[in-house]
Input
Amino acid sequence: MEVNIPEQLTLTVSLRGSREVKDNYQLFRLAGLLDAFSEPAFRKVVGKCVEEGPNNIILDLSAIDFVDSSGIGVLVQMAKKTQGVKGTLQIISNARVTQTVKLVRLEQFLSLQTSVDAALSNLPQSRPAPEA
Output
């Protein structure tokens, strides 16, 4: 039996998180502040993970306390980056994050979800390997 222990991410004092890599997606669970201070570290760390693959990304922001325009900007950058590598980005939101995203009318583009299970059900299905 394989046990998958989440990898702790080194972000900032105000933004903490972990990463789990599965067959066809990566799940990031983040807590704290996604703001102008934490945005550069978030962009660098998560951007590198997107490049490493898999290309389908789930960001669990349900424990985020605050997101500002810099945070929204980096989420848009990550959505474009995943689209560029033929992947998807889905965001598990909370009331604060949802309100901020809706203010700028990006809730459809950022694919807000209510739970990790909802995001998992929206993942593209892996194609089975052709039989020899």
